[in-house]
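Reviewer 2 asked us to include a model.

Predict the structure of this chain.
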Amino acid sequence: MQQMTDVDTEQWDLIIKPKNGWFDIDLRELWRYRDLISMFIMRDFVTVYKQTILGPLWYIIQPLFTTVVFTIIFGKVAKISTDSLPPFLFYMSGNVVWGYFAATLTSTSNTFNSNAHIFGKVYFPRLTVPLATVLVNFLQFFIQLALFLAFYLYFYLAGAPVQPTAWLLLLPLLMVQMALLCLGLGILLSSMTTKYKDLRFAMTFLIQLWMYATPVVYPLSQIPDWLLPWYVLNPMVAIVESFRRMFFGTSAVQLSQIGLSWLMTLFILFIGVVLFSRIEKTFTDTI
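Predicted model (structure tokens):
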């Protein structure tokens, strides 16, 4: 009988194999690295506010001042319709949703460049980094949502024409969609910036333009019929309007537009994951 060598009897807890497919994402591996995701979440939070005086209070100051500016410029000066809703609440509702989207997209789109120093040194699922960013920014969303609810309660008790609806039960589902959209679009842009460096400089400008292509400072009802079929291809349209329908009871968004928004979100996520999986194999060769 042939004697077994030490190599034959070795047992391994983890075997790292090369990834060759276009779509090679192991969800079980991501779950095994959940502690690492928690560490990245803590790192991202501490990094942003470690040397600030006000810390997380900026989560409140920024949307509050933005809402005041929007109320003055778009409500008082431009006199843009808010569908008979209190302008302050209308603009704040848009800022809560858009604030999470813009902050998360900006962070995740810089995944490769901002983490190049660790990507080239040690193995771990690269998707854990943008996933942690998506999760840590929910802290910002919850703080700003609490601020919105405080003003909402004030206006509601004051007799403003706002009425919560049963759609509020779908808020967790809306949050899942926001997270998936930010993750998919963020890793898609992050993959592209490894080759096209100019995208990093254009991100702020592009996000600003996207905001004006989303009903943040105006309602969906103001979009002309001939433009509407193309306009709702923007998945953020249904997300913002669905949020308003949950709390205000009025919105022009339709179920078909919400369904289309979900299809666009899942399509963007699929393309993002495929491209991210492809780029991460050769990322260290392009930096």
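The chain has a mean pLDDT of 81. The longest helix spans residues 128-157. We have added this to the supplementary material.
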